[in-house]
Amino acid sequence: MTPTKNIPDKAPSPLGLLLQRLRRRLPPRGFFGLALVLILLSALASTDFSPRKRLFLAGEIATSDVMADRSFLFEDSAAARAKREQAKNLQPLVLDLVTAPIEEQRGEVLSLLQALRETDNAEARDALRRRLAEEWGEDFSLASLTALADPKNQAVITDVLLPLAEKTLREGVLQEMRVILPYKGGAILRNLETGEERLFSDATSLQDLKSLELLVSLAVNQQSLPAQSKRALLQFFSRTLRATLIPNYETTASRAAAAEAAVQPVFLQMQRGEILIRQGDRVTVEQQIKMQSLLNRASSRFNENLFLGMSVCSLLMTLGLLFAPSNKPISPMDTRDYVFLAVLVFLFSLTAKGFSLLALELAANSPAFAVGSLAYAVPVTGAAGLAAMIFTTRRYAVTGLLIAFFCTGMSPAGFSGIGLFLFYFLAYMWNTWLINRTYSRQDLVKSVLPLLAGLFALWLGGTFLQGGPYTRYLPEALSLTAHAILSLLLTLALAPVVELVFNYTSRSRLMELLNLEQPLLRDLMLKAPGTYHHSLIVSNMVEAGAKTVGAYSLLAKVAALYHDIGKTLKASYFIENQNSEENPHDKLAPSMSALILISHVKQGVELATQEHLGREVIDIIRQHHGTGLIQYFYQKALQQTDAVPPKEEDFRYPGPRPQSNEAALIMLADAVEASSRTLEDPTPHRLRQHISTIIKTIYATGQLDETELTFRDLDRLADTFSGVLRGIFHHRVSYPEKGAKEKTEAQKAAPGEEPPAAPFRPWPASLPADASPVPAGSSSKPSYAYTSPSGGTNRDSETAFPPVSALPQ
């Protein structure tokens, strides 16, 4: 009977599918908790808790000093009016360039010349003279008209004077220069046909009709004509000229009004700590305006704009926790990580707010005290020490940005200067660099001196950035010293608490786990010495490899030491720990043998959980074999089964595949170290080829798909692993034995004797790729390891990968 499957009553709706996709893409709930904490901190930083001040009116006697507790701006209305008037007066005159007068002039000149050519008698010319005198208001003599009728003179007009005039008129000619003299801003020449505008700041560079007449006069005088003809040409042509630049007073006025309206109010900067009114002085109108500006900014306890700005900026910063700039997959943060980050940011921001309120109280009681000095005592580098022990580089950098951002917002100076923000953030990053180079709590204590030196250097840079040296050296030096000491004490005191509460494996905890006297490592050394030796070599390999590809070398080394601790429970079932000829797998079915090998991962996770090794180490133990197949026992099961073939899933590790670069490094180093022992003659070239083949095989099976390792990283790892293993497999010089010479001569004298026996090897040199399992009960010891792609047999590892030649290309 065919079993029935559970079929849903109906398919999900499109809206349901959309909601499912959104849920899968949304970050964990802890992210939204962190966002809520950031919004609360933004509201706290935007709330003013300083005491109210009394307003002194103009004419009153000030009963106390009034000092600006913050930098602020106040409007100077008189200066604003002067600037508006100046903007209005400097508006250039808009001149429209029109081309119609050019065509009109040409038509008029040509028609008059035609009329002169047609008047062939004195009576007709006299009638033309009277008409021109009536139109132009100037009398022309008959002699002048007779000279203009001369074809030679007409040729000068059409060939010389008209082109010259047209060229000049197209560039723009004013009627009179005096129309632009009142405009100090010059003139804007606007071409009505193309819409192009040109600014002439020096309006005297433009031409008017008088300057054009002068050009025409110079051109006429250069001609070889009688004086009467020249006078007639000048008199006639100058009367036909027309201006092509027309002042547009309406547009000029509208632009002047727009420029006047665009002038921003004039604000004067008042610096924090500046005395606005001194006790005993009579308050002036200007002083009252300054004090009103100060009180108006303080009238509202909550600054909405600051709240919105801080909320948006801080939430955008947190996106660095979700995305990587290189678009590579990143290990996700869980709710625990977000809660720890939120607590860290909240506590240190609250500390900065407490220091701010304390500074305001001290300044109220002692006017000589500067409220900004105490801001340098906020121990933000203590947060750096805690974050650097837990998070990776990108995450503790984002944490540093958030802490520096909110601590700056909580300070009395607020965001008036970038120097304090840079001091906080760079001091934070400087301490993370120091923390990552400590290997003990003694090193951590010693780091306080370079930390203090860095704080003084950053303070000096911020001082010059904000305007140079001042007189507050002593209080700020004391603040910096308190900063360094408080940060050290917080790191030492809170690190164990963070490990206990959040179950983190901090850097200090990892250093403790490196101690070979740890109970788990001692059990491994005593119960599974072969596995212990294998783990030591793998730890050295992954430490060097992690430094090559930029992974967390300390975590990788510690996890490599503990990755096979599950073998201590059944050490004799792993060939590296078998010291006798009897192999317990000879009496077991292949499926049971595979189950025992697979169980060492689960048992290792349980032991690591019992000893509180930390989530990071436990995850690597769980992932260090990925979903690899135990090839030997799977093939053995296939050969022993005639009916139903065995399931491949029963011979495969449950996984998951490596989720981090550190887990991938341990998988690679584990396989490389174990399989390299099968090489008969491990020369550097053969060793490098063998390592490269193993790494390519693991990559081809998809075990590294969920990590960030690139082909370039894998090639670097092959070089690094090769260098470490060359040091282990290096050759030794064989020392001559006593009487070796006599033995050699004796052998030469007896050539019929057998040669000496080959040196003993504790593992088979090589097995053919298609070698079948040795049946139980055979005199030779069976190997249940996989055949390496290079032809050797891996005696230590349990995971089998197919040869590269068998993989799809």
Descriptive notes:
- The protein is mostly helical and 809 residues long.
- It is built from 30 helices and 10 strands.
- The strands form 4 sheets. It has a 4-stranded mixed beta sheet. Strands 1-10 form a two-stranded antiparallel sheet.
- Helix 4 runs antiparallel to helix 7 (151-171), helix 18 (448-465) packs across helix 19 and helix 22 packs antiparallel against helix 23.
- The radius of gyration is 47 Å and the shape is elongated.
- It starts with 13 loop residues before the first helix and ends in a 60-residue tail after the last helix.
- Residues 1-9 and 748-809 have low confidence and may be disordered.
Keywords, separated by commas or semicolons:
disordered C terminus; 4-stranded mixed β-sheet; two-stranded antiparallel ribbon; disordered N terminus; 30 helices; 10 strands; mainly alpha; 809 residues
